[in-house]
């Protein structure tokens, strides 16, 4: 049995288009589902229907914003 003493470091963030940015707040969960460390909400695309991933009702949907960036279409969480 392998025991991890600390969470793995997040990988590099996908490249964003001009006008896009990452919301600097840490995401605790996506409607109760765990979120990998280093996942953030993308801003500058549109106004997301859910104010944050923690209150997002959509846990199954996804949308490609760029060739490398997959997000929740309801809250903008980076799901790449």
Please describe what this structure looks like.
The chain is 0% helix and 10% strand. It is largely without helices or strands and 80 residues long. The strands form 2 sheets. A two-stranded antiparallel ribbon has the order 1-2. Strands 3-4 form a two-stranded antiparallel sheet. The N and C termini lie far apart (29 Å).
Q: Which secondary structure elements does this structure contain, and how are they paired or packed?
A:
Layout: E1 21-22, E2 42-43, E3 63-64, E4 70-71
Antiparallel strand pairs: 1-2, 3-4
Task: Give me some keywords for this one.
single chain; about 80 residues; little secondary structure; two-stranded antiparallel sheet; globular
Strand order of the largest sheet: 1-2
Q: Please state the CA-atom Rg, rounded to the nearest Å.
A: 13 Å
Count every helix, treating DSSP H or I runs of 4 or more residues as helices.
0
Strand count: 4
Query: What distance lies between the first and last C-alpha atoms, to the nearest angstrom?
Result: 29 Å
The geometry reads as globular
Question: Main β-sheet, in a few words?
Answer: 2 strands, antiparallel
Strand-and-helix sequence, N→C? EEEE
Report the structural category: little secondary structure
Calculate the mean pLDDT score and round it. 83
Task: Give the low-pLDDT segments.
Answer: none
């Amino acid at each position: 049995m392998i025991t991890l003493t600390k969470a793995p470091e997040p990988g590099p963030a996908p490249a964003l288009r001009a006008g896009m940015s990452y919301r600097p707040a840490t995401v605790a969960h996506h409607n109760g589902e765990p979120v990998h460390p280093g996942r953030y909400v993308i801003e500058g695309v549109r106004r997301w229907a859910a104010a944050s991933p923690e209150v997002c009702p959509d846990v199954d949907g996804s949308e490609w914003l760029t060739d490398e960036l997959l997000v929740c279409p309801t809250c903008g969480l980076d799901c790449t």
